[in-house]
Design a protein that fits this description.
The chain is mainly β. The protein has one domain: Rieske [2Fe-2S] iron-sulphur domain (Rieske Iron-sulfur Protein). The chain is built from one helix and eleven strands, in the order βαββββββββββ. β6 and β7 form a beta hairpin. The longest helix has 7 residues. It binds FE2/S2 (inorganic) cluster (FES). The site of FE2/S2 (inorganic) cluster has 11 residues, from loops. FE2/S2 (inorganic) cluster binds next to loops.
């Protein structure tokens, strides 16, 4: 679990907030008034998804138009072949609590 402090206020100023986490870069945005936390890079070729178009409950990559369902990251339309990692999250007062499915692995092996 990770607590991202002050995210609610930041989302009132910016519709999309990029955060660097132990799990990599992620984006926090509101979809239908609820927080959605998804990986910041498109699974197709790494397009920056903070620039994705948000249409209702869909996220459309600005690079090649892969389309993902925001609530669970499922790919609705390619070229991406794999889904977008989406992590459960909820507001707790001004903060956002993110429930990672597992602890990050130590990529350095140190
Ligand atoms: S990088 Fe996102 S669709 Fe290609």
């Amino acid at each position: 679990m990770t607590r991202l402090e002050g995210i609610r206020e930041r989302l009132s100023e910016d519709p999309v907030v990029r955060v660097e986490t132990a799990h990599g870069p992620y984006v926090v945005r509101l979809v239908g008034g609820r927080p959605v936390v998804h990986h910041a890079l498109c699974p197709h070729r790494g397009g920056p998804l903070e620039d994705a178009y948000q249409v209702g409950g869909l996220l459309i990559c600005a690079w090649h138009r892969s389309t993902f369902r925001a609530r669970d990251g499922r790919t609705v339309h390619g070229p991406a072949c794999s889904g977008l990692p989406v992590v459960p999250a909820r507001f707790d007062g001004p903060d956002l609590v993110v429930d990672w499915p597992e602890e990050p692995s130590d990529a350095t092996g140190a």
